[in-house]
């Protein structure tokens, strides 16, 4: 009996499965949505059929099938073994996935649900998380077509203790795409012409699919003419013929061009547009420094702001021309190497200063409106939007310029004579006073430096006296009132007195006469000495002057 009990006990230890392990069982029946499985030693358990189905598929199990199950408990309250197919698959899956993670190999799975931030993936018994950013190389708007489809994934991270697995579908796509890209790039050569499909359009160009690899067609390589936005000439899905301009073997970037397949219009620019020739063009772009004018498709020239108008110097180009406007321009300079054409707009019109010089010779009289008043003169508006300037010194014969300019206001109409036209410097000089008589010239007719003139005292001041000669006033300073210091007193004169004075200076520009009684007395004394005595005669000054006075009588 002891031997029998030992054998029986040994039999129990061998045949009875251990709880918490995966065991093999046989499907003996399927009823009420459950599979009844015999796990040995007369132990049976039940498992819902749904545990035998993959996500999105029907259960695939039949009576007689041998399956692996996870034994939770040898016997539950109903006397049956508590088993689970799902836990068995999970344990099996984790073992398999850990090996795949360690060897960085791909695993198959199916997306079966959507969660916050991504999706859930069944990896054959283990559930993994697929972040939204790892679904595809580009953001996916609709993941419907991917749901339930068996496909490869790359395990990025896994933690068995916490039951966390993170996978990526994007890594698989990028790897296969890189292989495909390398193969396509290997078959391409710079200068080759290929067909491609426009995949995406941006502000700076378009991405063209060359059969598994994208190339960038920059907006400047689409046409010889200016293209404001790629959508002007391309649309998504369109098939285009392009030339491979450059291939970067390291980054696998491909630069494409369309205009390279067309003839370069710049090859014939110098012949088609000789210097100083006039052509019609269309304004394509306006900037602060000028306007771009298209002469033909692919050939644009710049009209600099300084070449836009003869008269509008500090005006924005947008106030002179507008986009799409047709204008006549003159070719000023061509630099084929830099692909630049300098154009002129004002050169197609006559220089208004030349026109003015022809129609208004020096001496002619004009009438215009005072446009501006400055500290140095008046600006008068003339025909063709040009101005002439009346300098302070040309305002009046009788008043100083600073005083005369006070008589004018903006908007006044004035008449003036043309005194000079400088076409090169674009200046027109005018004179208002030239239309009147020069009273100063008339007053001093015949008077020159050294002349003795008779004046009338008009005012007595502390610093001297004011005198009048032929209607023109002058001032004799105190120091010039007499030769002797004691007689240099203004109060010894009275208004209305007639006095003789010597002209010391004639300033026609300032319209002033310099007068001096002292200079007259010194000159008379010198003359008397020369005529009636000498330094050797011994005669006194009184004797000489007395003789001179007698001689004068």
Automatic annotation (TrEMBL):
Pfam families: S1
GO cellular component term of the entry, any: cytosolic small ribosomal subunit
One of the GO BP terms on file: translation
UniProt keyword annotation of Membrane present: no
Domain S1 motif per the UniProt entry, residue ranges: 20-86, 104-170, 191-259, 276-346, 363-433, 450-518
InterPro entries: NA-bd_OB-fold (IPR012340), Ribos_protein_bS1-like (IPR050437), Ribosomal_bS1 (IPR000110), Ribosomal_protein_S1-like (IPR035104), S1_domain (IPR003029)
Keywords: Repeat, Ribonucleoprotein, Ribosomal protein, RNA-binding
A GO molecular function held by the record: mRNA binding
Family the entry assigns: Belongs to the bacterial ribosomal protein bS1 family.
Job description of the protein: Binds mRNA; thus facilitating recognition of the initiation point. It is needed to translate mRNA with a short Shine-Dalgarno (SD) purine-rich sequence.
Name of the protein: 30S ribosomal protein S1
Naturally occurring in which organism (per UniProt): Neogemmobacter tilapiae
């Amino acid at each position: 009996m002891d031997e029998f009990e030992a054998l029986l006990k040994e039999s129990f230890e061998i045949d009875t499965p251990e709880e918490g392990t995966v065991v093999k069982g046989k499907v003996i029946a399927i009823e009420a949505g459950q599979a009844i499985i015999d796990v040995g030693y007369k132990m049976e358990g039940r498992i819902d059929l749904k545990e035998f189905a993959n996500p999105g598929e029907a259960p695939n199990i039949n009576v007689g099938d041998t399956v692996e199950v996870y034994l939770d408990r040898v016997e539950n309250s109903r006397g049956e073994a508590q088993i689970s197919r799902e836990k068995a698959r999970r344990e099996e899956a984790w073992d398999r996935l850990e090996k795949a993670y360690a060897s960085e190999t791909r695993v198959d799975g199916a997306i079966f649900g959507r969660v916050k931030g991504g999706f859930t993936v069944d990896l054959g018994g283990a559930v993994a998380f697929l972040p939204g950013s790892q679904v595809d190389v580009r953001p996916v708007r609709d993941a419907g077509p991917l749901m339930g489809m068996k496909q490869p994934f790359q395990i990025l991270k896994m933690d068995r203790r916490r039951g966390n697995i993170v996978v990526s579908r994007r890594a698989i796509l990028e790897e296969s795409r890189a292989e495909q890209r390398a193969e396509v790039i290997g078959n391409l050569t710079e200068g080759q012409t290929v067909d491609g499909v426009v995949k995406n359009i941006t502000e700076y160009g378009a991405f063209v699919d060359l059969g598994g690899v994208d190339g960038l067609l920059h907006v400047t390589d689409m046409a010889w003419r200016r293209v404001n936005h790629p959508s002007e000439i391309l649309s998504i899905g369109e098939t285009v013929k392009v030339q491979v301009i450059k291939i970067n073997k390291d980054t696998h970037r491909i630069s494409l061009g369309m205009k390279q397949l067309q003839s370069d219009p710049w090859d014939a620019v110098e012949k088609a547009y000789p210097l100083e020739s006039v052509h019609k063009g269309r304004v394509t772009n306006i900037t602060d420094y000028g306007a771009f004018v298209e002469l033909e498709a692919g050939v644009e020239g710049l009209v600099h702001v300084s070449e836009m108008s003869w008269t509008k110097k500090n005006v924005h180009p947008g106030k002179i021309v507008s986009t799409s406007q047709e204008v006549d321009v003159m070719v000023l300079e061509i630099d084929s190497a830099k692909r630049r054409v300098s154009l002129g707009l004002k050169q197609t019109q006559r220089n208004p200063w030349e026109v003015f010089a022809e129609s208004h010779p020096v001496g002619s009289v004009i009438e215009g409106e005072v446009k501006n008043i400055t500290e140095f003169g008046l600006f008068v508006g003339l025909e063709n939007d040009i101005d002439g300037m009346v300098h302070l010194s040309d305002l009046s014969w009788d008043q100083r310029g600073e005083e005369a300019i006070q008589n004018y206001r903006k908007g006044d109409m004035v008449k003036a004579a043309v005194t000079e036209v400088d076409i090169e410097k674009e200046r027109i000089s005018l004179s208002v006073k030239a239309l009147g008589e020069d009273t100063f010239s008339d007053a001093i007719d015949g008077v020159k430096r050294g002349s003795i003139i008779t004046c009338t005292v008009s005012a007595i001041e502390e610093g001297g006296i004011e005198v009048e000669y032929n209607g023109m006033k002058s001032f004799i300073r105190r120091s010039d009132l007499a030769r002797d210091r004691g007689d240099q007193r203004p109060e010894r004169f009275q208004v209305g007195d007639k006095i003789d004075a010597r002209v010391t200076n004639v300033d026609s520009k300032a319209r002033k006469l310099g007068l001096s009684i002292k200079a007259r007395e010194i000159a008379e004394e010198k003359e008397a000495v020369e005529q009636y005595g000498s330094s050797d005669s011994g005669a006194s000054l009184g004797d000489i002057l007395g003789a001179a006075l007698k001689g004068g009588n």
